[in-house]
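Researcher: We're teaching a course module on how sequence relates to structure. For the next exercise, students receive a sequence and then see the predicted structure as C-alpha cells, so they can try to spot secondary structure elements on their own. Here is the exercise chain.
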Amino acid sequence: MDDFSRLSSRGAIYAESEAYSGEALINPMIEARYRNISSGLVTLERHVIIGTGTSIMLGVKIGEGTAVGSMPLVNRILDA
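Model: And here is the predicted structure for the students to work with:
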C-alpha cells in the first residue's frame, strides 16, 4: 500500500492461494512439497480507495487514484 491509499472494513488482500484442483493436498499443516501454492505481489498505488468487502486477488496492481466500489472481486490490473 502506497501513500494515502485506504482499505475499508472487511476488505481482503490475497497474496497467496492454493490450487483446489485435487492434484495436490491443501492445508497449512501439510508440508509445502505436497501443496500447489501460487503467490503474487499485490500493489495499491498512491491515492487508491478500496470499498467495504472488497476481495483483491494475487498479482493485482491497482493504479494511482483508482477508486474501487463495495463488494467487488478484483482479479486483474486496474488503471486509473
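Model: If you want an answer key for the exercise: The mean pLDDT is 94. The two ends are 16 Å apart (CA to CA).
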